[in-house]
Design brief:
Two copies of one chain form a homodimer.
Chain A: E1 3-7, H1 11-24, E2 29-32, E3 42-45, E4 61-64, H2 70-73, E5 84-85, H3 92-109, H4 111-119, E6 136-139, H5 143-155, E7 159-163, E8 173-176, H6 180-185, E9 189-192, H7 206-210, E10 216-220, H8 229-237, E11 241-246, E12 266-268, H9 278-293
Parallel strand pairs in A: 1-2, 1-3, 3-4, 4-5, 6-7, 6-9, 7-8, 9-10, 10-11, 11-12
Helix pairs in contact in A: 1-9, 3-5
């Protein structure tokens, strides 16, 4: 029987994967990895230890247990030719839409200002924008970015999107390449949903943040290192940016002494904007293994050069 | 030329109505009311003074400048036979959807708990419900209630609705009459969107609030007196209700010593969930006056016995 090995730093998650995949693929051996595990045909991996690959010479495909593969691609002993597939969506798109829509409604309807007025005991009506007056930009139009962009457009916000290669999507004003400055200049809210690659690391530095209009807000639900922390803090301190909602950070958990924790213009959540739903993820991996065994391409394969 | 009089306690609003209607109905005299104004054919009124109607014997229709007519119907000298029309929607439905969706997403995704964790400097993931696990009830299925209920159902929440008379709406589980207890028992979030009438005043007292499941949340965007303040505070204090979002109050502005201001489980806004959009309202009144003058019914007429 083909063997599937699960390697995951959290025992509960590893066990969940083992049980779910075991049920979905009863004609496979599914086991969690430990030192000396026999060579497997497939691996489901999240942050595998340094020596993992040395003991797995027979792997046909490596399944990332999440959507982001930046950490996996930097693994020092990742075999050069090993195909990698990543989780696509698995319930994450719906959650991203919820998270972003909540934040954008909060900005539009000024709920934070109203909360401050309540705390001050002050009864006062504030001028508020209509949806049509709050243009939103989505940086990265992959599976998740596109789903968020479409949902926001359907809800009535004017939506632009920026992608590496030119794209065209109904109801989204699409930018790429040289259009970055024009794209950013039109964003009252900027949502980051791009993968972390050599190109996107440190992308939002002081100069590019300055291309956003004064009073804009940033929502980062992608990867922390897309943004230069110090440059973001400077833009918030001068008031060029009105606020930032951060779900991801260069180091997670965010170190206790990082200024984001206490910055009055930063709202943060601990990388929970979209959790991979275990049952949907297991079903996706199982159906891809079935496809492979029928001789079909498995879907979700990563292009290592592009980095996602 | 037919005369239209505007009577509104806020001078800016009165002037706005006068200008907008003057532009839309150039073949009418439009003026703001003052003592001794000549008798008019139509009035647009918000909280008219006690003696207003004594000097207006020729009124054919009274247009309420807002959606709620409870204050107008209690005017001591309102002529018995005078038809009253009220603003319907005029952009308010969209705003109600925004307000309610924001609050429900906040509850579902536990953004308040995450804000508290940030303040405590604590990095911790919390269990979160999916949309399908958060049943929402809408009390009152008029124009606004129905629009909110439909939007929430389209977004993926299981939605029930309660109305005075039996109703049937696709994708909404409809209750009426005796079904109240069953309706409330199934609401994890209850949105109040019913008019204030003799029947709804004080409706949500200790007993009916106790019919909500433990841990439910209340959103009142209708009228303050639908809820008995002390009973709501008691239900919040025991933890039977997890929270309340209140946009409306028995007395507005809410008196400075009212416990809602500082209650840790109350979020409040100063009656801003849906502002009548001036341009849309003026267009609605103008088109109703045109209909009247063509001999057609104007729409939006209030049934005084029902109270809305």
């Amino acid at each position: 029987m083909p063997r599937i090995v699960i390697v995951h730093p959290e025992a509960v998650s590893a066990e969940r994967w083992r049980i779910d995949l075991g049920r979905l693929l009863p004609d496979h051996v599914v086991e969690t990895w430990s030192l000396g595990s026999p060579p497997a045909d497939y691996a489901v991996a999240w942050n595998p230890p340094a020596d993992f690959f040395d003991q797995q010479p027979a792997l046909k495909v490596l399944f990332s247990a999440g959507a982001g593969v930046d950490a996996l691609l930097q693994h020092p002993r990742l075999p050069a030719g090993l195909p990698i597939a990543r989780i696509e969506d698995a319930g994450m798109g719906d959650q991203m839409v919820e998270y972003c829509l909540h934040e954008i409604l909060r900005i539009q309807r000024r709920f934070d200002d109203y909360q401050a007025l309540q705390q001050a005991g002050e009864w006062r009506e504030l001028p508020v924008a209509r949806r049509s007056e709050l243009p939103v930009g989505v940086f990265g139009l992959g599976v998740l970015g596109l789903q968020v962009a479409r949902a926001l457009a359907a809800f009535g916000y004017p939506v632009s999107g920026y992608s590496r290669s030119p794209a065209a999507h109904e109801s989204i004003r699409c930018f790429s390449g040289d259009g970055l400055r024009e794209f950013l200049g039109g964003c009252q809210v900027l949502v980051l949903l791009a993968p972390l690659t050599a190109q996107t690391r440190g992308f939002f530095n002081a100069e590019r943040l300055s291309w956003l209009p004064r009073g804009a807000s940033l929502i980062n639900v992608a990867r922390g290192p897309l943004v230069v922390d110090d440059d973001l803090i400077a833009a918030l301190d001068t008031g060029h940016l009105a606020g930032a909602t951060l779900d991801v950070f260069a180091r997670e958990p965010l170190p206790a002494d990082h200024p984001f924790w206490r910055h009055p213009r930063v709202r943060m959540t601990p990388h929970v904007s979209a959790l991979t739903l275990a049952d949907l993820s297991a079903r996706q991996v199982a159906s891809r293994i079935r496809a492979l065994e029928r001789g079909e391409p498995p879907g979700g394969l990563v292009d290592r050069e592009q980095g996602y």
